Amino acid sequence: MFYIDTYMAPVGEILMASNGSHLTGLWLKGQKYYALGLEQSAIKKELLIFTQTKQWLDTYFEGKMPVFTPPLLIEKATPFQKRVYDVLLGIPFGQTMTYGEIAEIIQTETTHKVSARAVGGAVSRNPISIIIPCHRVVGSNGSLTGYAGGLQAKKSLLTLEKAGLCTVK
């Protein structure tokens, strides 16, 4: 059984999804891959996980990094995508990283070639936006490239974090 709830954020309405105990999805309304993998039979219901997620979002949209992360579960992703999401979770609040830098990190763990383009494909399908901070990924020259929620939302999130588009090394 899957459940949904919504949250009104400064960047627009957010849809949250859960299996009952973990957050399994978080999408900005209208974003690319919106509700990807969410079952049509999902029921709108107030759950503890949604209360925790709303608390996280409230803190985040006050311009502060929350001190906790709600329990997350990514069910429908490849091992490569999951590894990319793990790297994204390590990008500090208020900082950015390039697609190429993420590819380099993953490249050190494998014998396969990892391209920035492959990383971009995984980032674009991130099922838990904002909490898994795909908005902190920028182009090689620091430009605001590709964000499933739209470049204006990406800019708003980075501005909120006072990111200044400085990259993590």
Structure write-up:
- The protein is 31% helix and 15% strand.
- With 169 residues, the protein is of the alpha/beta class.
- The chain has two domains: 59 residues, Double Stranded RNA Binding Domain, CATH 3.30.160; 82 residues, Arc Repressor Mutant, subunit A.
- A hairpin with a 2-residue loop joins strand 1 and strand 2.
- Helix 2 crosses helix 3 and helix 3 crosses helix 4.
- The chain starts with a strand and ends in a 9-residue tail after the last helix.
Key structural traits:
2 domains; Arc Repressor Mutant, subunit A; globular; two-stranded parallel ribbon; Double Stranded RNA Binding Domain; 169 residues; 15% strand; 4-stranded mixed sheet; alpha/beta
Query: How far from one another are the termini?
Result: 41 Å
The 3D shape can be described as globular
CATH top level of the largest domain is Mainly Alpha
CATH topology of the largest domain: Arc Repressor Mutant, subunit A
Total beta-strand segments: 6
Total discrete domains: 2
Share of residues in strands:
15-25%
User: How would you name the CATH homologous superfamily of the largest domain?
Assistant: Winged helix-like DNA-binding domain superfamily/Winged helix DNA-binding domain
Uncertain residue ranges:
none
Give the topology string: H per helix, E per strand: EEEEHHEHHEH
Question: In the CATH classification, which architecture of the largest domain applies?
Answer: Orthogonal Bundle
Mean pLDDT: 89
Structural class: alpha/beta
Biggest pleated-sheet summary: 4 strands, mixed
Radius of gyration over C-alpha positions, nearest whole angstrom:
15 Å
Task: Tell me the number of helical segments per DSSP (H or I, 4 or more residues long).
Answer: 5
Query: What strand order characterises the main sheet?
Result: 3-2-1-4
